[in-house]
Design a protein that fits this description.
- With 606 residues, this protein is mainly beta.
- It has one domain: Beta Barrel (Maltoporin, Chain A), CATH 2.40.170.20.
- The protein contains 4 helices and 37 strands.
- The strands form 7 sheets. It has a 22-stranded antiparallel beta barrel.
- Strand 25 and strand 26 form a beta hairpin.
- It is globular, with a radius of gyration of 23 Å.
- It starts with a strand and ends with a strand.
Length: 606
């Protein structure tokens, strides 16, 4: 059952292989964020970004590569460390679930519970899996728009890279490890520093940004059936930010944010007991955010998750299933310095059945029982049909929900003070239908996907309280094309149309551009590789930070050029020009993005 791995215009720019090799058979690729191991063609709405894709695009932070994925829209409060959020299919940014090695990263101390991508360094990331559409039946709360899962690297050997360039920027990554059939151990450290530029578009002072990340992975195989493994990852970042002075004038300030977070995972797997593969794991998450200013504040958050799953069946099997139980305990501080906690228990199951070689169907069901709210069940059904002539039809329908956050539950910032009453979890329903085609010589691939996502009881802050008032609906189309123009020249293009509206008012949702797209060209010579990537977004509804009123951010077109020169099997020289045409543009209204910037570097490996 051959189907194509489809990434996006810049997500899969490989400089390590000829252009025609970029069109990858999904028989070689399995998706693990779907809980049950699956080939990508059997998992509608899924895209995979590999380590080779990341290296070729020379992306430093997650937002650098996610912004090219159709259906995702990025908002950033200024280049170089500005708070970065990702919307999936028009849903608010707090409805994107983010996982690193299966550990949830969404911030429980944030009022909306979203995730800030600004410091997520890709130096130790092996792959990124993007699941669009509501994924409540797989991951529970927060995955209304979808889920983005990062997997860190298990390395055998060593790697070293260094880069420097415009705005006083420097970056280094060092990784070392050893792996064999018995076990593995590896460690990665990355550091990034820049003088930056003013995050406020009207500002003049430089806002610097420093970030460093260390991570480790270990695995021990005890015979043929028992495996122990673990991951740990720590990040620390200091970001100069702009905001408001004592007179509420937006512009240059002396404020900064200092964030420290770590996550850990310990897991034991037993294969073959009662004919099943059973996995028991515990994950821990800890975050501290310090806002250093005249009226500074500190926020802390902690999460512990216990999970046991059992099932059988590989990606190529006719029948496969997985059952699981889960317990999550979360604690976070609020603006007063007090702490509060929320917890939830869940049971879930996933079944995949392929009665014929060309047909695969997957169903998932989950029941979540939050401590403070009514229990909720969510379901999802997906299918893929491989037709003659290179056609593939896929479809899915699913549900999602989002439990009120700790801040919303205790009604932080509310007046009069007191816990929220009557708040309900947000709920969502969504579907998508996709049709793809590949040529018989595998040199051309195209896919079009239509979808709808409807969110009810969305929580907003109004009249001094958090209340369920919003009802939003997004209807969209995503188009993707890959072509091997020659044996050395490849093309990738993506376009997304997003109609995201507030059903209560009829107004378009903020920071969800109606039109966006990307175009990538790759060249691979004997020693020289190059990738030219252009991105475009139309204008979008936004908020003006200077006037506190709704406004519009203008559309933009930017381009990046990345290249490498292979000196030997162990040494590459790299270069990158960001914002090639030096356009003035804004990702979010009122916040500055960098002009043309040049970076040069070197990569070493054994």
């Amino acid at each position: 059952m051959k189907r194509l791995l489809l990434t996006t215009a810049a997500a899969g720019l490989s400089l390590a292989a000829p252009a025609h090799a970029d069109v990858t058979q999904v028989d070689e690729i399995v998706v693990t964020a779907t809980r049950l191991e699956a080939r990508i063609g059997d998992a509608p709405g899924v895209r995979v970004i590999t380590a080779e894709d990341i290296a070729a695009s020379q992306a430093t932070f997650a937002g650098d590569i996610l912004e090219t994925i159709p259906g995702l829209s990025l908002s950033r409060n200024g280049d170089f460390g500005g708070v970065t959020s990702v919307r999936m299919r028009g849903a608010a940014a707090d409805k994107t679930l983010v996982l690193i090695d299966g550990v949830v990263q969404n911030d429980p101390s944030s009022p909306s519970g979203g995730y800030d991508f600004s410091s997520l360094d890709l130096g130790d990331v092996e792959r990124i899996e993007i699941l669009s559409g509501p994924q409540g039946s797989l991951w529970g709360s927060d995955a209304i728009g979808g889920a983005i899962a990062f997997t860190t690297r298990e390395l055998d050997g060593w790697r070293l890279s260094a880069e420097t360039g415009s705005y006083g920027t420097a970056r280094a990554v060092v990784a070392i490890g050893a792996a064999n059939a018995r076990g593995a151990i590896s460690a990665t450290a990355s550091g990034y520093s820049t003088d930056g530029l003013s995050k406020a578009a009207i500002g003049t002072e430089k806002d610097g940004f420093t970030s460093w990340t260390i991570g480790g992975a270990g695995r021990l195989n005890l015979g043929d059936s028992v495996r122990l493994d673990g991951r740990v990852r720590y990040n620390q970042a200091k970001i100069a930010i702009d905001g408001y002075d004592a007179f509420f004038v937006f512009g240059d300030t002396d404020e900064r944010s200092e964030n420290r977070s770590w996550t850990g995972l310990a897991r034991a797997s037993v294969d073959g007991f009662l004919g099943l593969n059973t996995v028991a794991e515990v994950s821990l998450y800890d975050l501290t955010r310090d806002y250093v200013s005249t009226f500074g504040s500190t926020y802390d958050a902690r999460r512990a998750t216990w999970r046991v799953t059992s099932g059988r069946g590989a990606a190529e099997d006719v029948f496969a299933f997985l059952l699981g139980v889960e317990r999550d305990d979360t604690e976070a501080s609020i603006s007063t310095g007090e702490t509060a906690d929320l917890g939830a228990a869940a049971v879930f199951g996933v079944v995949r059945f392929a009665p014929f070689e060309r047909l695969s169907m997957t169903a998932s069901l989950r029941h979540d029982d939050p401590d403070a709210y009514q229990a909720k069940s969510t379901a999802r059904l997906a299918g893929a049909l491989d037709l003659p002539g290179g056609l593939l039809v896929s479809a899915s329908v699913g549900q999602g929900f989002k439990t009120p956050t700790i801040s919303q539950t205790v009604c932080d910032y509310c007046w009069p003070a007191g816990p929220s009453t009557g708040l309900r979890p947000e709920t969502a329903e969504g579907w998508d239908v996709g049709v793809s085609w590949r040529s018989s010589d595998e040199r051309l691939f195209a896919r079009i996907t239509g979808y709808r996502l409807e969110v009810k009881d969305q929580i907003s802050y109004g009249a001094g309280r958090y209340v369920n008032i919003d009802h939003t609906k997004t209807t969209g189309v995503e188009v993707e094309v890959e072509a091997a123009l020659t044996d050395r020249l490849g093309l990738r293009a993506a376009y997304a149309f997003t109609d995201a509206v507030d059903e209560a008012t009829g107004q378009e949702l903020t920071r969800a551009p109606a039109q966006s797209g990307s175009l990538g060209l790759t060249w691979r010579g004997d020693r020289l590789g190059a990738a030219l990537t252009a991105r475009a977004e139309g204008d979008q509804a936004d908020y003006n930070p200077s006037t506190f009123s709704p406004d519009r951010r203008k559309g933009y077109v930017t381009a990046n050029l990345a290249g490498s020169w292979r000196l030997s099997d162990r040494i590459d020289l790299t270069g990158k020009i960001a914002n090639l045409t030096d356009v003035t543009w804004q990702q979010s209204l009122g916040y500055r993005e960098s002009g043309r910037a040049l970076y040069v570097g070197i990569r070493l490996r054994n």
